[in-house]
Write a structure and sequence with these properties.
homodimer, about 300 residues, seven-stranded parallel β-sheet
């Protein structure tokens, strides 16, 4: 069997996790190169990626969704098939159009990972199957995140002046989960609690706490718990933690569907999902079905070389 | 918007549930007729179904999987698109071939419902994403059924001579669930307990108990609890119960995926899934993608008329 030749773009937490998963699944995949814009030992300069266009079947694109992916992707998709975990829900349509306008005879699968990704699949299936009666107060699917480390929120706190290091745990509220499970509708800001552990000098803590609590989009209007901890404590308990997870619920008043994810490592699982969609990517190329896809556009059997009939 | 014109074949518990769901979703669906081989008030004789071939977009086929579906389906699929919940896992491939050989320019979606159906989807996704290391004792996805009423097992007990009525509850064992959740591998026969409530005369109970416990495929080799109850007690507590549910687990040692279903009515939920796949059926016809499909072959976005991008 010919193995799928993989390139990884970006060598942060997610890129490293992709390299790990590819090496674990070496029967099916071969890592050709890791590309980085920075000079990192063991990586190839991103500027040289065109030289690899006939040597790679799928690129796993592991760069930031906010600023990097929209810039990097148009350069990649003319010559390469790609799988990414673009996670800016609000900008997804714009991102897809951007890729389409530069794409060659290639396949790009965008927004894989777990949210967007596996959680999106669940929301789509749950809402297609469970349709609450029109006179019902029930809503379509509802999502909880956590308990786990939000890298985005952790970074937002780290950017505050005077913060030496910080981590933010997203904690779904137990009473909100129970309420949603029986069909109540709860606003997103009431579903979660945001718990921060911050290293900072004593004299700056009041100001920092104030800045966290009032930070728009990230913390303002939500239940926030802030704990200042010593450098030693942070090193011991919080450094390098990547666990995450979450829940998707559906309830039409008669049937309950519930999907739960518990992850030791958010980047590792995201990489597992991306690698499964790399298989889908190759199958779509074989069928000459070029274009840009989300997880909603791909039939489950494309994700695996196994005989799915045995699983039905 | 043109509504989808639905025909229902079979008027047992599932057929009735389909009629209920169609009437609840009358914005999208129109019930044209219910077909039955028996003379039932409000139904059309199945022998007259050909007269409806231009009046129906999708038939929801609600006949038994063991003996009825393999006989009835070849007659239907030359003129109609169909969605069924064929649930004989072992005979699925044979069933698909049978349909293919009689199919016109139509779409048939087989094995929808929840198992096969939604649980199959979960097993496929879980196993595609979570791949335990080769030196691991972990297995791919594992399924539990219950706590709920198994119609198949209830019928098997009812067929025993001297049984006036009976119901069988499939109960997943709590310790087995916990063991599977942390990655242990448990044989199917050790995962569930089968609890029967049986109405029978005192003098026949010993023989009936013996026949249940030794019944191959259904009860032999499994943990079985048999309770003889009075007619009055059966009427009060067990008549007309249809609740069911179950769990699908995936665990690669680092990530846990878990899907839980809790159903007030097994037939109602099965009908909800069939109706969602009726939408998929129409979309596939519009795209002229004729053929026989399982849930593994259909991209999630086909199941709904909603804009799925908003759910990603």
């Amino acid at each position: 069997v010919k193995r799928i030749r993989i390139g990884v773009v970006g060598f942060g937490n997610l890129g490293r996790a992709c390299v790990e998963v590819i090496s674990e699944r070496s029967c099916l995949f071969e890592l050709v190169a890791v590309f980085s814009r920075r000079t990192v030992k063991g990586t190839v300069a991103l500027s040289k990626i065109e030289e690899y266009k006939d040597k790679i079947d799928v690129l796993l694109v592991c760069v930031g969704s906010c600023t990097d992916a929209p810039v990097v992707m148009p350069l990649l998709v003319s010559n390469f098939c790609t799988v990414d975990s673009f996670d800016n829900h609000a900008k997804l349509s714009e991102y897809i159009e951007r890729i389409k306008s530069s794409q060659g005879e290639k396949v790009s699968i965008v927004g894989t990972g777990w949210d967007p990704g596996v959680f999106s699949l669940m929301r789509i299936y749950f809402d297609a199957i469970l349709v609450p009666l029109s006179n019902s107060s029930l809503k379509s699917s509802q999502t909880f995140w956590g308990e786990g480390v939000s890298l985005g929120h952790s970074n937002a706190v780290r950017r505050i002046q005077g913060v030496k290091d910080a981590i933010q745990f997203t904690v779904p509220k137990k009473d909100a989960i129970e309420a949603v499970r029986v069909g109540e509708v709860i606003g997103a800001e009431k579903k979660h609690k945001r718990v921060c552990y911050v290293v900072a000098q004593k004299c700056e803590q009041d100001r920092i706490e104030q800045e966290i609590r009032t930070m728009p989009n990230y913390f303002a209007g939500q239940e926030v718990e802030i704990n200042f901890v010593s450098w030693a404590e942070f090193e011991k308990h919080y450094r390098g933690r990547f666990e995450h997870g979450g829940l998707v619920f559906g309830n039409d008043g008669k049937s309950q569907m519930e999907f739960k994810l518990k992850l030791e490592s958010n980047p590792y699982y995201t990489a597992c999902v991306m690698v499964a969609y790399a298989i889908a990517c190759c199958k779509l190329v074989e069928e000459e079905k070029y274009g840009v896809y989300t997880v909603a556009d791909i039939a489950p059997r494309y994700l695996s070389f196994e005989n799915v009939i045995s699983k039905i």
